[in-house]
Amino acid sequence: MKKTMIAALATLVVAGSGAFTASYAQPANAPGAAQQDARHERDHSRGPMRLSAEDRSALLDARLAGFKAGLKLTPEQEKAWPALETAMRDIAKERGERMAKWREAREERGKKDRPDLIERLRNGATMMEERAKTMKTIADAAAPLYESLDTAQKRRFNVMAREMMNRHGGPRLGGPERGMHDRG
């Protein structure tokens, strides 16, 4: 159970880190920032709004604070929190940088042909390697904190991690309330 929940938290960070991405992806004065700001004002009936780096940073701060508050850590347990928080922030920063590079590559490619199957397979393998590294980083950072939690705190940890995964881009849990692709 313990390993499952640490893996779930790691998956949460990997899968949902788009919402966690800190303010490193694109500075406000970067080229294209005005266009990005204009996208925030568009009609969102055609799809989700792309959050600004500042928005993502604020959401990361709020989610981390909520997660920590929900655990009701003791002063002794508080000592293990910074490792997890730092890992989550670092991963969000790395993901923001990766997404910025991906967007640049997509714009450079423009109307050229889509990468062939072999290139897509290699890209997919690289992304899986990065996700595996991220999951291990989160598991290593979360383990000391998780080990220090009592039964009630572990239950809350599990529920909050699962809820964050369901709401913020992580894997969907099957069941009558939530289908495999339910984003609601």
UniProtKB/TrEMBL annotation:
- Any Pfam family the entry gives: LTXXQ
User: Where is composition skewed (Basic and acidic residues) in this entry?
Assistant: 37-50
**Signal peptide start and end residues:** 1-25
Region described as Disordered: 30-50
Q: Name one GO cellular component term.
A: periplasmic space
Q: Which UniProt keywords apply?
A: Signal
User: What is the protein name stated in its UniProt record?
Assistant: LTXXQ motif family protein
Q: Which organism is it from?
A: Chelatococcus asaccharovorans
